[in-house]
Amino acid sequence: MPDIALLAVFLPTFFFVSITPGMCMTLAMTLGMSIGVRRTLWMMGGELIGVAIVAIAAVMGVASIMLNYPQAFSIIKYAGGAYLGYIGIQMWLSKGKMTITNEQQTQVSRISLFNQGLMTAISNPKGWAFMVSLLPPFISPDKAVAPQLFWLLSIILVSEAVAMLAYASGGKSLRVFLSKGDNIKLMNRIAGSLMIGVGFWLALG
Which residues are listed as membrane-spanning (predicted)? Predict the structure, then answer.
């Protein structure tokens, strides 16, 4: 299990990043409004499995490099911190617009919904870059990787599930909230600030 201090930093950071409107959250809200929350759960299941695959692949790939080249850990830590800071700045500069399609998907099968969520998570290059930069610095090379990955992955999946369920069940009310004023911009700036802070913490810690 990672240190409690690390989890205390990781949990709010990833939750705010998850709850910020993005590709998967927009998809969850659109489907929740068009086909209902119950059927949208199939898409959510596929998305969560896709996120788990990306997270595990990112950590195991970086972990193998760390085992063979221990000195690479510092490089990975600095690079990860710099990239998180870059993402945070991009979120701050975001204009906060949200694209919501009105495409009717009432006839889509459960398998299609599942595959849609799975492929959305796996084919998202930003998701891969985010996992590669965020997760490895929270893995201690002095401890077993599997237990640490289990706890981090649990936080990731719970955060993603809660966020997607909120978007899917919020439906029209959440859509109205996000379309008003600078609400999306505020959410992006909160998440961006956390990302910048964690980036500095990882690089300098």
Answer: 6-28, 48-69, 75-93, 148-166, 186-204
The ranges assigned to domains in the chain are: 4-204
Q: How many CB atoms within 10 Å of residue 197?
A: 15
Q: How far apart are CA 3 and CA 23, in angstroms?
A: 31
pTM to 2 decimal places: 0.70
Report yes or no: 162 and 25 within 8 Å, Cβ to Cβ.
Answer: no
Cα distances (angstroms) measured from residue 106 to each of 33, 43, 103: 10, 13, 9
For 168, the token pair is 């899917």
Q: What is the distance of C-alpha 157 from the center of its chain? A: 9
Q: What angle do CA 162, 81, 25 make, to 5 degrees?
A: 25
Distance between terminal CA atoms of the chain?
A: 19
Quick: pLDDT tens for 148-203: 888 888 888 998 999 899 888 876 666 666 666 666 676 667 667 766 776 776 66
Q: Residues 58, 128: contact at Cβ < 8 Å? A: yes
CA distances from 76 to 8, 137, 163 (A): 21, 7, 29
